[in-house]
């Protein structure tokens, strides 16, 4: 039996597969050298091909050069550099191919490790994806041997996306990416695409591969002259290669023939998977001058494939399979001399391709891909925006929602809130014609709102709040037939809200949020509420008298309000008197005046200003036992405004403690105070706004997988650093006393910050220090020792933090909605 041709070849050159997009002349070639400087290009000396930098096709990765010890005169120029991807799970090249959809392409990726990182790594392993589909796994086992991946594929889109996916087995990289257009009549299949298995220049004794310009399709032909029981043939004469496959004349000028000891040639291979299917392409040309009476039969897997075949003199004949070979553990091609033949069989070249059937997932609609790529480029969006926006399912772009019900996925929702966007609203968004939801809130967008946003006919929700937008609100928004929500507050619009939008808001068909563009001048003495809208109470039109019921309700409300205010004032006076008479037995961090007058004087807001910043307390962020938290807007940024309930005496005590504490400490993992309001019984604290609310909400039972493990780890670390600062970075140390998931807030980047310091206490200095105090905290988080002894120590916070860690790990709330007990 002859040596296994294919296995030997694989050992020698380690050929792998990927996909392509090229043209038959160089003007149609796309040749990308990965790792050369941004914007640079060059002409390859050996091939004359024009190569460009990969910087225009990928926005991640690091440039590198192989070690000098791997340089050689025979090495292709594009293999000297590479782009590595040490960060990110999935990094993708996106290449637009003009009118590429429906055409047949060869896509080739090249890899040479060359110890570029000085780590002498072997067994590097990473995956390649073509568009939304897994393609193949690349395994680096030799630093000096280039690997090539090829696939012949009919494009389903004008965009080719090649993704390098990290398997946590070494840093992925790529050296070159090449796309070549093929004749649509060649390499036909009944289904699937063709992954290159081997492409051999038989009988060649050269040391270099044959490619462009010898091969007009720029296929790579590997010299191979190691078939047992054969001899090599060659010619310097010109060979006619004019068939649709156009095998290079340089390849056809060499061949192998059976030697005198045998009557045939046998080539065989064993697939890695017995279910794999293959297509074969055999190229023949008679190159011996004395060629009379050469005939042979061609057998494939024991079945006659072509009988009494005689190659044409100095002219190519390509014999190929119409359908894929049936799966087998072993395939064999035999060329056997017929009884009437004098000369032995010969063959010049062979190509074998494996059928790839998994390329079936549709790519996103081309118009949507082009639009979203332009949006990405305009705003330099990072996130996980790599590859196809809508696939694979596990890698759908963050902030993008897709509809998969049609022939091709389409983008129906785009959330770019809190993404640090700057500049104008991108006109490319208009090309996302199926958008139902668009959220661009909490950025720094400037300029006017494009009136042609109304072209998004399916739009249901539009949120442009909290930006720097100016000009007038387009009246034609009212013409959007499905618009249900329109949020415009926190901008610098001029003029008035169009009456058409106000009418929709009044009749309940539109949820409209906006600022008063021309607010009345501020009152001299006290705040006067704005006039009532049609939906609010207004006096009856037929007279100036109120009904008896309405009048009684108003009087009762005033009386109750007055009593509460008097009680609060009385409590405060009594408390001050007690503080003067006796020594305070527990160490507290409190303020000495309801005005919080010292350090916070420059941060004091009037109640009128609070009403303005919250748009009359329009949007509630949350409610607690001592009051309500509202969304506000101050100095071009969102804030959270916590207003104390007038009836909450305990809440006022905690308000004092929290305001004083936050005034004196500063840390990246502690919530920061913007200001406060103390005006009559209107008491509130203004904090920085945390866009992603609390950890408790992120760990909702309805969405246990909302946070990735990486995000959970960072949140836990942030919270721990904040707690460590309170315990060891402050003098004296501070005990939070109410560590729980709802008091860990998350900003737009999921950075965690400790909040709600109303129960906090400072700790006396000295070893073994503690504070003896009444029990306070939240069920399930209380330290058992603290509960038993009333002695508060730093370990009390640590215990509570351990409970939070358990919540982070499990993704579950500590207590269910109906739980009344907990286990310590």
Automatic annotation (TrEMBL):
Residues 523-542 have a biased composition (Basic and acidic residues). Residues 1-22 form the signal peptide. One of its GO terms (cellular component) is membrane. The keyword Phosphoprotein does not apply. One of its GO terms (molecular function) is ATP binding. It is a single-pass membrane protein. ATP binds at residue 642. This is non-specific serine/threonine protein kinase.
